[in-house]
Amino acid sequence: MNDMHSPLAASTLKTAYDRDGYYFPYDVASAAHAAQLLADLEAAEAECAGDRAKLSLLRSYPSQLLPSFAALIRHPRLIDAVTQIIGRDVLVWSCGFFIKEAGSKSFVSWHQDLNYWGLDGDDEVTAWYALTPATVETGCMRFVAGSHRQKDVPHVDKFAPDNLLTRGQELAVKVDEASAVDVLLNAGQASLHHGHLFHASGPNLTNARRLGVAIRYVAPSMKQTSGDKLLVSHVAGEDRYGNFEHMPPPAGRLQPEDWARAKRNADMKKEILYKGVKDELVKVNRRG
C-alpha cells in the first residue's frame, strides 16, 4: 500500500488534487474487505429482490440501511484523505452505488457532479470506492485533468435509457476525450474527485458485475440553495452551522425505521436532483 500517512504523502495528495481535480489510486482497505462489503450488499439485494422500491433505496442509500456501509463512510483511511482536502469537519451528503451488470450497456455521460446538487459552493469531494476491479473493460471512470477549474459548465438533459445519471445529463461543451485518463482501481481502492471535474464512464464489456460506491463528503459550511435541510451523516469533526439534519447510523440491518428515513431522504433529494424537469419525465426516468 502507498503510505498516505506521512507528511510528504499527505502533501502529495493535496497538491495533486488541487492541480488535477482528482487523486487515484488511494488504498483504503484490502480486497477481502471489499469482498465482504460486496457479499453483504448482494445478500441484501437478494432479500429485496421482490420489492423494486426497496431495492432502489438500498442501492441509493446503503450507509443508512447496512451497518457495514455506515462503517465504510467513516473508514479512517477515507477520513484521512477527505480531511486533507476539505478540512477536519466532514458530513456525508450522499452515498450510493454505480452498478454495471455483466455485459451491460450502461454508461455515464460527461458531466460535473455539482451542477445538479443544489449546493451553494464546492467544498466537497467524492470518494469512489471499488468493490470490484474498475478497468477499461468493466467501464471505469475517465477524468479530464484540470477541468474542475472551469466551475459550472452548461449541461443538457438527455434521459438516455442506458445512462446511469438521474437525468442523463451531459456537458453541452466538447470534451477533449484524448486527454482523459482511465481511473483504474483494484477492489479496496478509491479515487477522489472534485465536484466540478469532467468525468464519464463506458459500458461493462465483461461477464462480471462492476460495482463502486460513491461517497459525497461536504464541509458543514455548505448548504442547499433551496433552504432545505437534507439528511446527512456527521462523520468527522464538528458541525457549527446546522445547515443539515444529522441522521444516526442504521439501527441494525435493514430495519423499518431506517427504510422510512431512507425514503424521506430520497423524496427530498428527488426535488433537488430533478429541479426544472417535468413530472412525467421524473416518473418515467427516476432511478431512485
Q: How many individual helices?
A: 8
CATH architectural arrangement: Sandwich
The helix content is 25-40%
- Kindly report the CATH topology: Jelly Rolls
CATH class: Mainly Beta
Shape: globular
Strand fraction: 15-25%
Round the mean pLDDT to the nearest integer and report it.
Answer: 86
Q: What is the C-alpha radius of gyration, as a whole number of Å?
A: 18 Å
Spatial separation of the terminal alpha carbons: 35 Å
- At the fourth level of CATH, the homologous superfamily is q2cbj1_9rhob like domain
Kindly name the structural category: alpha+beta
Major sheet: size, sense and barrel closure? 7 strands, mixed
| Total tally of structural domains | 1
Low-confidence stretches: 1-8, 279-288
> Which oligomeric state applies?
single chain
Would you list the SSEs in sequence order as H and E?
A: HEHHHHHEEEEEEEEEEEEHH
Numbering strands along the chain, what is their spatial order in the largest sheet? 1-9-4-11-2-12-13
Number-wise, the strands total 13
